[in-house]
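Supplementary Note 3. Input sequence used for the single-chain structure prediction.
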Amino acid sequence: MIKGIKDNSLKLSVITKFERLLELEYLWNQLLERSATNEIFLTFQWVTNWWRVFGNKYRKLLILLAYRNGELIGIAPLMVTQLKIPLVKVREVSFIAEGDYHDFIIVDAVEDCINLFARFLSENRNIWDILRLEQMPKVSPNLEYLIRALHINGIAAKRESGAICPYIKFHAGMQTYDEGVNKKLLQDIRRCRRRLAEIGNFKIIICTAENAEQALERFFENHIKRWENSLTPSKFVKETYRKFYQIIAKSTIEKDWLHFSLLVCNGDPIAYHYGFLYGNKFYYYTPTFSSEFARYSPGNILLDELVQLAFAKKISQFDFLAGDEGYKLRWTREYSENLSVIAFTNCKGVLLHKLINNPRRRKILRKLGRVISSKLYN
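The predicted structure, written as discrete structure tokens, is reproduced below.
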């Protein structure tokens, strides 16, 4: 049984039921807006809707709440996942939901809150084997406190390098959006604009609540077709991802966070971008374009329009999010870094971590599992 913890001035409560999580709707985003890492991927809408779609029997909520004198001041948005590995039971604690930035949500007494969270993990080692907290911004003040708190509570922990996140910073005093942008890139985009104009009229459409649902269906179709012959097929071949994008669109468009745009030529969409405007930042999240128009670089034309739009709206940052894809680095040389914190309950956890992160060993284990299963059940 999981129990809360009392510590001098702080009290910890644990949420394992989704119904109880929903009770935090009013407070969650209020705390997030005051925290060090205020990102779209940590909002109540993102976390709860991800759980609605992807929560299953292999995942359990483990949301830790820190209270001081009855006031909520810290949230650790965690879950426990039973990994599907043959022959061995592996329980991993991680942040809830997929996203490019993750962190604790803490507004006061940061070190004390993190010590409380670490103490809970130490006293409940029976429910987990591996702690894997990925995509924490390197600049987060919570990182140092976390590593120290885990060690103090007898948990071996280490930091690992994560993704880089390129971004364009619109500094005060900038006269044009393209200051510092690769001149060759801008020339290429202008040339593509001229070539596209030769075959018809094109324009940008920003979707609203009235037309977003229909546009999403065509966005999914375009993305699936775009990647169907690649080594990494579109994630939208899975109904769960289509459902997640639909639910997120509905819940974020109401708050003016969703920014879903199309590049249309002669009335037909030839490029799409599904992203967000949140916290004075533009999130460049999921783009796609029609392969038949690849010679006109419709994705780059739409991207150029979005960068201009962000600059015109006086958005402070255009975030390309996690990944060092070449097209991002043509736009900017600035980037932030994410880190992961990995910890283990015991030697078993260390061995399991090495196994999970070695593709060859995973393959051997899966084969061994199939052989043993066939002997047992045939």
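Residues 263 and 275 are 14 Å apart (CA to CA). Residues 171-315 form a domain with the Aminopeptidase fold (CATH 3.40.630.30).
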